[in-house]
Design a protein that fits this description.
six-stranded mixed β-sheet; globular; 16 strands; about 350 residues
């Protein structure tokens, strides 16, 4: 639950990042998936970018299920993180991946949420995560939070609106059902991923259910540009939402619960403002001669570097974790989020003039 109190702060950091699967990366009439040197070199660049942020939880979209590609990521993260993946149904070659730092957290359960039939060919990953540092003193429900990674269908035209709503309905329903089944009332939920649109019915439905965009909470408006799509439009489509589930129970909890206080939310590379124009990605570079981004100071040079990595920018949120909340009175999340959302800059205003 998102709160204003401070008590025994520990930390949690979460990243969401659409990798741009090599099977979809077309440049100069070629697919990157046909060039193993190119896709493995770019995979290593993505891995380095992720590792530089040192996040506890990493949620990836367009994770390619080619053996060599998977092996590169598992080799990089499996020693320190739990690694779970979910492939899209049918003949789709990509899906989702989530890495959770096993030194700080434990996984109680992992569920794949199929968004098939009338909901298309997508998938979501729901993970029940618990803190390790207090497991000797606190029961599971007082150490728990949920992480949900999702990637919704691109809105090619108006016909896709109902499909996207069906997908997010299934995701939100899966969260509610899991919470009820596990008796986890009022635990924090972090919902993140590539939502493939902004200021649309999906966004409004998510916020209506008590979720708040953490970038908007930190900055007073949404990130303006997180993605340069295949139509060469620059849009803000990557989100990290936070909430505790709405409840009719008393606002003063009899049992202490884990609480998350957001303290930061930023795009990577951090030195690039969220209004900076992005470029369509390219592959085929000799990475041996590419300068490290940590040495780049010029915005244009950073944009030119990032177009070699992905067509999305990673989004990172950081929290203080409060696990000693006995007797704490928690304000209504619904009222809290409504108050904050009323003060945000509208997404239409934020996007004005930023797309061709």
């Amino acid at each position: 639950m998102l709160v204003e109190a401070l008590r025994r702060p520990r930390s949690l950091s979460l990243m969401t990042f659409n990798l741009l699967a090599p099977c979809y990366f077309r440049h100069g009439g070629r697919l990157e998936s046909d060039d193993q040197v190119s896709f493995l070199s770019r995979a290593q660049a993505s891995i380095r970018a992720i590792k530089r942020e040192q996040c506890d939880v990493v949620c990836l979209q367009e994770f390619w299920f080619k053996h060599e590609y998977q092996r590169a990521f598992r080799h990089a993260f499996q020693p320190t993180h739990y690694v779970h993946t979910a492939k899209r149904p049918g003949d789709k070659e990509d899906g989702l991946a989530v890495f959770v730092d096993k030194r700080k957290f434990e996984l109680h359960n992992v569920e794949s949420v199929d968004l098939v039939e009338e909901a298309g060919d997508r998938v979501a990953l729901l993970m029940h995560v618990a803190t390790k540092w207090n497991r000797e003193k606190a029961p599971l429900d007082q150490r728990s939070f949920l992480v949900v990674n999702s990637h919704l269908t691109f809105p090619h035209n108006e016909m896709y609106a109902s499909l996207r709503l069906s997908q997010i309905h299934r995701v939100l329903s899966a969260v509610r059902k899991y919470v009820a089944r596990q008796d986890l009332c009022d635990i924090p939920v972090l919902l993140c991923g590539d939502f493939n649109d902004y200021n649309d019915p999906v966004y409004r439905l998510v916020t209506k259910h008590g979720y708040a965009s953490l970038f908007a909470e930190m900055h007073g408006r949404e990130a303006r540009i997180t993605h340069c799509n295949h139509n060469n439009r620059e849009v803000g489509v990557d989100f990290i939402f936070g909430a505790r589930l709405d409840s009719d129970q008393a606002q003063t909890l009899l049992d202490p619960r884990l609480q998350l206080k957001p303290v930061d939310c930023h795009l990577v590379p951090r030195r690039l403002p969220d209004v900076v124009r992005l470029k369509r990605p390219q592959f085929g570079h000799d990475w041996r001669h590419v300068q490290s981004p940590v040495l780049l100071t010029d915005e244009e040079a950073l944009v030119d570097y990032w177009r070699m990595v992905s067509d999305h920018r990673p989004l990172v949120a950081k929290f203080q974790v409060l696990d000693d909340s006995d007797g704490l009175t928690i304000p209504s999340l619904e009222n809290e989020m409504k108050t904050k959302l009323e003060s945000f800059t509208s997404m239409d205003e934020a996007a004005t003039g930023l797309t061709p």
